[in-house]
């Protein structure tokens, strides 16, 4: 039934391998409230519901999937909503983790929303397109290193857990996937202006082929930054170096 129905939904690639689903569920370290994004046919839902330490809710935009999930898991707290537009406080008013097999086309917006809500989201564990997972977890100096790399590594510990092959999905995607875990850094406080920090990181990578001097020339205070840093390109700077750069700009 899952294989027949899955072909109808939104172009999403549905996980069909129960071993992979169980492995993802077991990768979640947080115990407490958990929100699953896009449960689809519920293969991952089944395993997270088996954990007595988790209080599980799910959010799914497709009405046919919602009907199926209501039938399969009658006790599941389920919302038919768009995660990116929904007020999550209607589900949880206290900390919660996120888990899911995330649709490729909205993975970046999900991660930016995670950054916005990081005060109440201590962990995100789930599956992304492999290239996105690598980009998130890679270190400075890599060609994959970018805006999400810097911003997520600033506030979260980013762990690349394992790769997932195309054959365990229906329909099979044309790319490989990977599971990562993002764990919030406890007691971390950004030691510079947060709004300016986000602006500088985004501006730098929007012109990633240019040196920091050229990509940030519109920022007042850029002349206070040392020449060595200004001659670098954005992918050469760690998040710590970006923090130092912003501190100098605003000093």
Task: Describe it.
It is a single chain. This protein has helices at 2-6, 18-27, 43-48, 63-72, 107-116, 130-137, 147-155, 194-206, 212-215, 227-230, 239-250, and strands at 14-15, 33-37, 55-59, 77-79, 96-101, 123-129, 156-164, 169-170, 177-184. The protein is an alpha/beta fold. The chain folds into 2 domains: 2-184, Vaccinia Virus protein VP39 (Rossmann fold), CATH 3.40.50; 194-250, Orthogonal Bundle (Helicase, Ruva Protein, domain 3), CATH 1.10.8.100. α5 (107-116) packs parallel to α7.
In DSSP terms (H or I, runs of 4 or more residues), the helix count works out at 11
Report, as a whole number of angstroms, the end-to-end distance.
62 Å
List low-confidence stretches. Answer: 1-11
H-E order: HEHEHEHEEHEHHEEEHHHH
Summing up helix and strand content along with how strands pair, one would put the structural category as alpha/beta
Largest sheet entry: 7 strands, mixed
Corresponding CATH superfamily of the largest domain: Vaccinia Virus protein VP39
| Share of helix, binned | 25-40%
Number of domains: 2
Total strand segments: 9
For this structure, the CATH topology of the largest domain is Rossmann fold
Anisotropy-based shape:
elongated
Key phrases:
251 residues, alpha/beta, Rossmann fold, Helicase, Ruva Protein, domain 3, 2 domains, 19% strand, elongated, disordered N terminus
Summarize, please.
The chain has eleven helices and nine strands.
What is the fold's blueprint, element by element?
Elements: H1 2-6, E1 14-15, H2 18-27, E2 33-37, H3 43-48, E3 55-59, H4 63-72, E4 77-79, E5 96-101, H5 107-116, E6 123-129, H6 130-137, H7 147-155, E7 156-164, E8 169-170, E9 177-184, H8 194-206, H9 212-215, H10 227-230, H11 239-250
Parallel strand pairs: 2-3, 2-5, 3-4, 5-6
Antiparallel strand pairs: 1-8, 6-9, 7-9
Helix pairs in contact: 5-7
């Amino acid at each position: 039934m899952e294989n027949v129905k899955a072909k109808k939904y939104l172009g999403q690639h549905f996980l069909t391998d129960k071993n992979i689903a169980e492995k993802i569920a077991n990768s979640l370290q947080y115990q407490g409230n958990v929100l699953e994004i896009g449960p689809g046919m519920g293969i991952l839902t089944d395993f997270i519901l088996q954990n007595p330490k988790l209080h599980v809710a799910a959010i799914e935009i497709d009405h046919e999937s919602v009907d199926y999930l209501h039938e399969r898991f009658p006790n599941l707290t389920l919302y038919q909503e768009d995660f990116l537009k929904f007020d999550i406080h209607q589900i949880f008013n206290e900390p919660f983790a996120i888990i899911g097999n995330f649709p490729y086309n909205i993975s970046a917006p999900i991660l930016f929303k995670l950054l916005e809500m990081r005060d109440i989201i201590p962990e995100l564990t789930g599956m992304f397109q492999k290239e996105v997972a690598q980009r998130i977890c890679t270190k400075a100096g890599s060609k994959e290193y970018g805006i999400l790399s810097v911003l997520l590594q600033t506030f979260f510990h980013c762990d690349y857990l394992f790769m997932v092959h195309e054959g365990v999905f229906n329909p099979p995607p044309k790319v490989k996937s990977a599971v990562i875990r993002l764990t919030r850094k406890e007691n971390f406080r950004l030691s510079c202006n947060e709004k300016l920090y986000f602006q500088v990181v985004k501006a730098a990578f929007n012109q990633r082929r240019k040196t920091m001097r050229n990509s940030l020339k519109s920022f007042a205070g850029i002349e206070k930054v040392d020449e060595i840093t200004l001659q670098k390109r954005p992918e050469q700077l760690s998040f710590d170096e970006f923090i130092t750069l912003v501190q100098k700009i605003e000093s």
